[in-house]
Design brief:
The protein is mainly beta.
């Protein structure tokens, strides 16, 4: 526990250091909160008490709205940072004893050109016009609640931790919104019950707040409290302040959510169906307004979306993100990792694949994705003063040769100055009985911001497992500078030969990694005249060696990305690779008799072209084409998806991942193809039908997942899920099929 004691010692001395950090110079794009407050530049809005009833109908005609203070003067982040918004936006905030109300009038000179592409829950906001709110209820400038809607009143909510180091899109709150199209734009009324938020009822501090608006046809993003284009709404150190919010008393917050489930299943190759039923319950209790206890009894995740298959031509297993609701809510408390994510990331992030210190998919799932029954679990999350707290305990049942296990996690994090915090982490797995042994990991991390734009992120973690005393550690440190024109990042990571963490995701041990990410973002006038917005030449370099200094992997990504004014972009890159494998490797999954690559070192270079068209249009494409080397031979690969969205109710996407490869040593040719089809239909903002189908040509396997979801009451669902798995070979076994009916209902007290 020396690491933990060292971190607690840091906690005693770092607050004064962090509080005295310079946050930038007046006039810079990312001026620090302290400097802005001294200049009187922090934007403030006073919330007004509602003297009469507010009818939530999307029309701002209640008397309370007429008396409320107006937040206006929105400023562009995109495309012209610092310039006034091209369309006026006015926001008002009022509150009753139980509810926070946010009203907005989003003026638009061309209201018939407002773009809306989805009305489903948790829609993709970057594809359409929207209005966004972030609330920093503890005014710690680290963590916030985000509420987003579009012109049709669709709802999106998420949690933000560490100013975007962890973004939890699966967080759900009880809130309501109504919108209305008007002659000069559109209007919004949001109602957010105070019981849906965590806050300190005794505090006289203002809340942090910011408002944002996207005008999609112009690809324009604006903020009430200005944020430069290298950051997002999550940059809470640049948010404004909401004064005067005074909830009258701390209402009880107890939510009981039972479920009932019926299931009929026939496994692949089995003749008969097996029918079963189940019940369980989730309980959420606010111990204080800032601390929440979650209890789950016999949770079931039958409604979770199926994992999407991918063509895998690497030596590592694939990474699949967590999709189970219980593990996702408040997941940011447990995150240990990198600098905050920013607006520049245009591809889907796979978080920390070299070392993700807490990966909840290790609980209740086998390595192949088969569910393991979980009798129950508890979780405590929230804040106490300057400390963020996360604690989790769960137990799984025995499944085949996998023993019953108890899993525990403890996370403490102390907030320092804006953008800075330190913390400790403990994770453990203890087998019930003597068969499975134990594994414990513990360590400390620090995230410190200098001068408003430089982030230093580091951690040191040790592990304790039977027979692994030497080299049972991992550490990582990175320094990141994020500017409008230049961005730079350097990272070092080391994983000892004896390190083991059964609640982490990592790809190898006994390795040291060095990496650098450098790029510039010019916006030349000649490119803007051609319909462009920004160029992004960049280099991402990674070098892996073992602890004796021998190279085991290299990657050099050299590329230029062209971003266009309509939101589309394209990239051309050269990717030099080197991989050393210690065991033989078979890439051709479709032929079990195929020869394997021999152990040794392999070096190749591939060329890649990527293109994503304007996702706001009725039809758009994602395309990645790769040609060049692959291990001992060559490849030609194409990953393409065409998406049709004829209305905001319907979306259909058809895609293919296709690779033709030839390996020279051994001499073999093979083709790997996975076809994917997605269809989504939104009957209303509370009723959806989703279908995912995939066909893996290499093994001739077809999978289908069809899910109907009705939100019949706040945070209450009816799910009907159909799954099918079949093989198309001549001697194919009987297809596997299942039908699941799941009903949940949330009772709030």
């Amino acid at each position: 526990m020396k690491i933990v004691l060292l971190c607690l010692a840091f906690a005693a001395i770092l607050p004064d250091v962090a509080a005295s950090q310079a946050q930038g110079k007046p006039g810079e794009a990312a001026v620090g909160v302290t400097a802005r407050r001294e200049q009187g530049a922090v934007r403030r809005l006073v919330a007004s008490p509602a003297e009469g009833p507010i009818v939530l109908d999307g029309t701002l005609d209640d008397e309370a709205w007429k008396k409320a203070e107006v937040a206006s003067g929105f400023v562009q982040s995109e495309p012209n940072t610092g310039q006034p918004a091209t369309e006026k936006t006015e926001v008002r905030v009022v509150y009753s004893a139980t509810t926070l109300y946010i009203g907005a009038h989003l003026y638009d000179g061309e209201p018939d050109r407002i773009i809306v592409n989805q009305i489903r829950k948790d829609f993709n906001e970057v594809e359409q016009d929207d209005f966004e709110v972030i609330l920093d209820t503890f005014h710690d400038r680290h963590n916030g609640y985000v509420f987003i809607t579009n012109v049709e009143g669709a709802k999106l909510d998420r949690q933000v931790a560490g100013e975007g180091r962890e973004v939890n899109p699966s967080w759900d709150a009880v809130w309501d919104v109504k919108t209305r199209r008007v002659a000069d734009g559109w209007t919004v009324e949001m109602a957010i019950p105070f019981r849906s938020l965590r806050y300190d009822p005794s505090s006289q501090e203002p809340w942090g707040v910011n408002f944002s608006r996207r005008i999609r046809r112009k690809n324009e993003v604006t903020f009430w409290s200005p944020i430069p284009r290298e950051y997002t709404l999550s940059r809470l150190s640049l948010a404004g302040e909401l004064e005067g919010v005074r909830p009258q008393g701390a209402a009880r917050d107890i939510r009981i959510k039972p479920y009932a489930l019926a299931r009929s299943v026939r496994d692949v190759g089995v003749r008969d169906f097996t029918t079963s039923g189940d019940v369980g319950v989730d309980v959420k209790a606010g111990l204080t307004r800032a601390l929440t206890l979650d209890v789950t009894v016999n949770p079931d995740f039958a409604q979770a979306e199926a994992d999407e298959q991918q063509v895998n031509l690497t030596q590592f297993s694939q990474f699949f993100p967590e999709k189970r609701e219980f593990f996702l809510e408040n997941s940011g408390v447990f995150y240990v990792g990198d600098a905050a994510r920013n607006n520049r990331t245009f591809a889907t992030l796979t978080p920390d694949e070299d070392m993700l210190l807490f990966f909840s998919r290790r609980i209740g799932l086998t390595s192949g994705g088969t569910p393991i029954p979980i009798p129950g679990g508890v979780r405590l999350t929230g804040t106490m003063g300057d400390w963020a707290i996360g604690a989790l305990a769960m137990q799984t049942e025995r499944l085949g040769t996998t023993p019953s296990n108890r899993y525990t996690t403890l996370r403490l994090r102390r907030n320092l100055a804006p953008g800075s915090d330190i913390g400790v982490l403990y994770t453990g797995r203890d087998a019930v009985g003597s068969a499975g042994g134990y594994n414990h990991a513990y360590g400390a991390d620090a995230n410190i911001r200098f001068f408003g734009q430089v982030d230093w992120n580091s951690y040191l973690v040790g592990s304790d497992s039977p027979g692994k005393a030497d080299g049972a550690y991992t550490w990582r440190t990175s320094l990141n500078y994020e500017g409008q024109f230049l961005h730079m990042k350097g990272t070092a990571l080391e994983i000892g030969n004896g390190f083991q963490d059964d609640l982490a995701y990592y790809r190898r041990i006994g390795v040291r990694k060095w990496s650098a990410d450098i790029g510039i973002r010019p916006r030349p006038a000649w490119f803007r005249e051609m319909g462009g917005r920004e160029l992004h030449p960049h280099i991402v370099w990674s070098y892996y060696n073992d602890l004796a200094g021998r190279p085991v992997g290299k990657s050099l990504h050299s590329a230029n990305t062209w971003f266009f004014a309509d939101g589309s972009y394209t990239e051309l890159s050269a990717n030099a690779r080197y991989e050393y494998i210690t065991d033989s490797l078979r890439l051709n999954r479709g032929d079990r008799n195929a020869q394997r690559l021999a152990p040794g070192g392999y070096q190749w270079t591939e060329w890649r072209w990527l293109y994503n068209s304007n996702a706001a249009r009725p039809m758009w494409v994602n395309l990645t084409a790769t040609r060049g080397g692959l291990w001992s031979g060559t490849q030609t690969s194409l990953n393409a998806t065409v998406t049709f969205q004829p209305s905001f109710r319907t979306r259909i996407a058809v895609g293919a991942q296709h690779t033709n490869a030839r390996l020279n040593n051994p001499d073999q040719r093979f083709t790997a193809t996975v076809w994917t089809g997605r269809a989504n239909y939104s009957f209303t903002t509370n009723m959806f039908l989703d279908a995912l189908t995939q066909y893996d040509a290499a093994v001739r396997q077809f999978n289908a997942n069809i899910r109907f979801n009705l939100i019949h009451h706040p945070l209450s669902d009816l799910y009907i899920v159909y799954n099918e798995q079949r093989f198309t070979t001549v001697d194919a076994p009987t297809p596997g099929r299942s039908m699941v009916l799941k009903y949940t209902h949330m009772f709030a007290y």
